[in-house]
Predict the 3D structure of the following.
Amino acid sequence: MGAHEGRSRAAAFPLAAALALTGGVLAGCESPVPFYRPGEGSPDGPVVGLGGPAPYSSIRPGTGPSAPQPDPPGGGAPASGRVYAATGPGMIAPNAQGMPARLYVANGQAVDVLDPVTLRLAGRLHTGAAASRVVPSWDLRRLWAAGRANGVLVSVGPRTGRLGLPVNVPGAGGLYFTPDGRDALLLARGPRRIDVRDPQTMLLKASVPMPCTAGHADFTLDGASLVTTCRSAGGIARVHLASRAITGTIRLPAGARPGDLRLSPNGAVFYVADAANGGVWLVDARRFALLGFVPTAPGARGLAISRDARRLFVAGGGVLAAIDFATRHVTARWPLPGGGSPALGGVSSDGTALWLADPTGLVYAVDTRTGHVLRKVMVEGRPAGLTVHPQPGRYSLGGTGLYR
């Protein structure tokens, strides 16, 4: 299909039309962003001090949807994109400045570390965790290699490559961090729950029972709630973090298989990938209700946001689609090498390339303007996850490429 799609065909379906297409539906603290003072503690050691907010942004969690926000200095997302206003090109947080740019490819017993420019192997981390993903810590000072199969987390020092002692986390799934950095949230299975853990030691603090097995997550604009997808249950759930209570559930149309989700730049809508129906569902973030559906391609499962926060990239089924946030239209559909469903690793710091990893062992970057493959390399094993680090942002919310 051509690079640009007609708006009439790619527009977001109203909810009624989307339901007719897929079947029925069953409805179902504001604070400054803390930063560590430069120079305190070793780069890979325990965090010891808190400082003031990042100097390049005045955006804070908890600001309401209607509150005007200034454009960040040096470019980046416009004022309307305040959710990602601190993730523009060059906006590397103090804790991550000077870190070497690397690709971390989780492919089983080891994490391959690649130089994104030369694509040479810069190192191999034998985590022993059957790593399926690599997640940046909230303060960006370390990475966590997570193994779903054996329930282990291993910390990695991105400056030195040193590994920490493994932490047993039974039923380990996705790893996230609250916007204030106080808690790590581990989406766990058997029994279905969210474990609240210390973000430094990963020691268990509390558990929140879930009505379903949570897979992917993102946070509301005010940072008060976590919204998760539940693939096996075909729905999504909202968890209020302070009360640790389920405050809403939505069952998607019959047969839905929700994957990743992302909050829109204005904080008003969650975009939820659905591999079964081949597109993304739009969910009103405030009312927690379905709004409509945007068809992209069969197998849609992974999401990433462009560096200027104007487009949403949707990958799956051998296709990478780009959705314009302002119009909710698909503006491009590009074929991906091999026609598979790769893991999305994130956008390069300058925003020109989107990195992906295919289970065949192919790691590659595509041009975010044209969809052309810019560079590629084969690695050992079957990559299950890819992380680009460091990336612009004041802090990491975990997952794959969630920054604010």
